Amino acid sequence: MTAVTADQSADQLPRPTRLSEVKGWFFTADQLLFDWFLEHQQDRSVAGDLLELGAYMGKSAIFLGARLRPGERFTVCDLFDSPAADDSNSKEMAKSYATLTRRAFEANYLAFHDELPVIVQGLSALVSEHVEADSVRFAHIDASHLYEHVHGDILAVRELLSDRGVVVMDDYRAEHCPGVAAATWQAVTNHGLRPICVTGTKFYGTWGDPERYQGALREWLAARGDVWHEVQEVNGAPLIRLSAKGAKEPAHPVSRHRAEPQRPAERQPEARPAEAGPAAGRPAPRPAGGALRRVALDVLPPIVTRAIVRARKGSSGR
Ligand SMILES: C[S@@+](CC[C@H](N)C(=O)[O-])C[C@H]1O[C@@H](n2cnc3c(N)ncnc32)[C@H](O)[C@@H]1O
Q1: Average pLDDT over the chain, rounded to whole?
Q2: Reported confidence tier of residue 271, pLDDT bands at 50, 70, 90
């Protein structure tokens, strides 16, 4: 374990003036649902921590961090610039996340929050060593999109989630990553995962009772009016399907760099139109400076992570 100092002085680090400038894949329907689930849990005093496997530059993590309550822990696990443990995962990293560095993630995150989350830099397969069983109320699985890794991530998260906990699977139906679809629906048919709802990009489920969420979610969707939805029967249980085309994004956390003129190098191709102001009741971040650090975890050297992956392959029995 090492203390990580976030160095925001380096010229090359990003200085996003708003969340849409942070590179990533986190769209309106899922922003609305993350917000809804986290607020719903808060209203019903569902206790527990937050967890993200696969943070990339921090887009969804920054959003999640804004819903962290006092005393809760937010753990983010990513390889960042560490080597992957197998050839397929290395190829995936080189193709999709070649420019990723942990320092860029940290600079982005600290543009919106005063403290970093707990960072586990390493394979998602190791996350159970750093998060207590039954302690998590909301987990976002968005690390490797290869079957073997996703399958392992789902089984790990099953142990980490509390009874009322919600798991979100990214890219559960995308053409380029059939392994995520296979692992997700396998978890439903073989490992007790119960679907709550789906968007075009993410699957939301629980190992508890999905009706605890579905009734209230349907009421909220009906009251909003701008989010199309329907209910389908899947494997003998209701599944809410929704699409938020044209719906208003929820309020985003506010960047400490918001008043600064944007540097040309930071203009991102996927930047979206102007966003709403600070969320009601959420304080705007303090100006940069001071001790912007939090204890973070540096995980095992690659040689150890490779051994763990090999051991898992040998014992998976799939
Ligand atoms: C799709 S991106 C995450 C996107 C992010 N959640 C967002 O919304 O912008 C996937 C991330 O998973 C990480 N990753 C890939 N394989 C991993 C593994 N085996 N363990 C941990 N992280 C991994 C990559 O470094 C990358 O940052």
Answers
A1: 84
A2: very low
Q: Is residue 317 part of a domain?
A: no
Domain total in the chain? 1
Q: Is 34 in the pocket of ligand 1 (CB under 6 A)?
A: no
**Per-residue confidence (pLDDT) for residue 265, from 0 to 100:** 54
Sheet holding 202-206, edge to edge: 2-5, 293-298, 118-121, 74-78, 49-53, 136-141, 161-170, 202-206, 194-198, 237-243, 228-234
From residue 275, alpha-carbon distances to 21, 213, 304 in Å are 11, 28, 43
Please identify, by atom number, the ligand 1 atom nearest to the C-alpha of residue 146: 16
28 CB under 6 A from ligand 1?
Answer: no
Residue 93 lies in a domain: yes
CA of 179 to the centre of ligand 1 (A): 15
Q: Whose CA is nearest to atom 5 of ligand 1?
A: 55
pLDDT for the residue numbered 99: 85
Q: What is the CATH number of the domain that holds 212?
A: 3.40.50.150
For the chain, give the number of residues: 318
Residues 6+ apart with CB under 8 A from 122: 77, 79, 82, 298, 299, 300, 305
Q: What is the pLDDT of residue 12?
A: 85
pLDDT band, residue 10 (cuts 50/70/90): low
Atom of ligand 1 nearest to the CA of 61: 6
- Could you tell me the residue range of the domain that residue 301 belongs to? 26-260+293-307
Percentage of the chain modeled with pLDDT above 70: 78
pLDDT at 51 over 50: yes
